[in-house]
Write a structure and sequence with these properties.
- The structure is a single chain.
- Helix content is 75%, strand content 0%.
- The chain has helices spanning 2-18, 20-27, 42-68.
- Helix 1 packs across helix 2.
- The two termini are 13 Å apart.
Amino acid sequence: MRVLGLTIIMLLLLATAITPRGVWWALASWQYRHPDKVEPSEASFFITRLGAILALLLFGGMALMSLAD
C-alpha cells in the first residue's frame, strides 16, 4: 500500500517537474477571476520545478527502500 501512495505522489511530482505552469493552471488558477494577471513569475516556476525534482528523488529513494522490505 505504501508503494501505491508513493507512486501517486511521484506522478504528481513528475507532472510538476515537467510543467509547473500547467499544474498551477490546473490546481490554483480557479481561485482568481483573472488568473493570467496573477500567474507566478518564471523564477517561482523554476523554484517549484527544482523542489519537485528534489522531492521526486527523495520519494523515489523511499519507494526503492520500501520495495526492498
